[in-house]
Design brief:
The structure is a homodimer. By secondary structure, the first copy, chain A, is mainly alpha-helical. Chain A has helices at about 5-25, 35-40, 45-50, 55-75, 80-95, 100-110, 115-135, 145-160, 165-180, 185-200. At the A-B interface, helix 6, helix 7, helix 8 and helix 9 of A face helix 6, helix 7, helix 8 and helix 9 of B. Chain A binds a DNA duplex through helix 1 and helix 3.
Chain lengths: ~210, ~210
DNA sequence: TTAAAAACAAACGTTCCAGTCCGTATGTGC
DNA sequence: GCACATACGGACTGGAACGTTTGTTTTTAA
């Protein structure tokens, strides 16, 4: 016997997690309500109860959930510039090559351009990603270094799906690139705390 | 009245082009036979005649078509190392930010991991992309610089879909990154020929 | 010229998925 | 305890997409 809000929170969480898993493992094209429910262990009735518009209610919550986790961990390190954040995430990517949360966001982001309704209901959240996670000042054009780092981050994320993907090789190449740039000195001290918070949020990574 | 092989070639071309357009503009999730046929101006019967297995026959041909175009142009510049090719493509990306052929390949590549049948029928051709386009020696692990450049290239390709995408800003940031690396001297002399061949293949870019 | 084969068009049947509705059970507030 | 709201399960239904079949036109070859 749990309270209603507890039960509600639990099922919503299960649905969100199942959606993320499917997106990461199989991609957006393989996403369906039946599949999500099977994986979450709940009925379609339950999904439609919490998310009446199906994916159009669910996916914004998925993005928000992922963003909240990352942004909260990022915020716990204190106020950071956009560049500090990006270098931190790149070094983090090297240390934890199996962390794939950004893949789910990427999938939704790519799918949104072919689905106007999805684009509409996720637009504000995606704008939040730029500001809350990447620390990008809204309205401003991105700085050259900032944007280059974002491209590298996204490219490295994608590379996991390449047929010649190898986590160590990817680490070396990102390291190679970063060695030719000048990360803010603050990044070094923050890295340990950043990695620790990631492990704490997702113990399976340890 | 055209000969049969001419007609056949023409409709197949139309179907391939239409598929590429949809993939670039709307993504894999929006890809359907009806839509492809509407856009190509042919019937579903025609599509099924040339590609009996639907997308599983069509998409490998799409990838091959794109690969052939790029690899042929690349080969016309003479024998090039993997790094020379990648720097060339990155500089090319800056000069022609509206060229989106790689987006279509990316979409199919991402979708293949959620569709075993699609993965099977595209596997060999994707391996060809690594060797014929990127000049990667098969079997060998990728060099650090080589892989970093590939990540940057893919990330820059993806960035076009970002809400704060701006072609000039992207150009600057890729330029910023490349300025910190050491492209082979040969790249400079080859760039003009590379761009010219792209314009020749797709006059709309001029 | 005529039969065969290829290119194409258009319908049909099936399956899958999403939108909807309703029944039931479990908490919640009075 | 009772009425009510919420959480959930399951079924029904319409439409979209796919796989298949059949019919028609055009080219090819004997």
């Amino acid at each position: 016997m749990a309270t209603q809000s507890e039960r509600s929170f639990l099922t919503q969480n299960r649905l969100v997690k199942a959606t993320i898993d499917i997106l990461v493992e199989q991609g957006y094209a393989a996403l369906g309500e039946q599949r999500i429910c099977m994986r979450a262990g709940v009925s379609r009735g339950a999904l439609r109860h919490h998310y009446p518009q199906g994916r159009y209610d669910l996916l914004p919550n998925v993005v928000e959930s992922l963003l909240d986790d990352e942004a909260t961990r990022m915020a716990s390190l204190g106020p950071l510039s956009a560049k500090e954040r990006l270098y931190l995430m790149l070094y983090g990517l090297m240390a934890m090559p199996h962390r794939q949360v950004s893949v789910a966001i990427l999938e939704i982001w790519m799918a949104a351009r072919g689905d106007a309704k999805l684009a509409r209901c996720t637009k504000s959240i995606f704008d939040d990603v730029l500001t809350r996670l990447f620390g990008h000042a809204p309205g401003q054009p991105a700085d050259a270094e900032e944007l280059a780092l974002r491209c590298l981050l996204h490219g490295a994320t994608l590379h996991r799906f390449s047929s010649d993907y190898n986590s160590e090789t990817l680490q070396q190449s990102v390291r190679w690139m970063l060695d030719r740039l000048d990360p803010p000195p603050k990044v070094d001290e923050l890295l340990a705390a950043w990695l620790e918070s990631a492990v704490k949020a997702e113990p399976a990574l340890a």
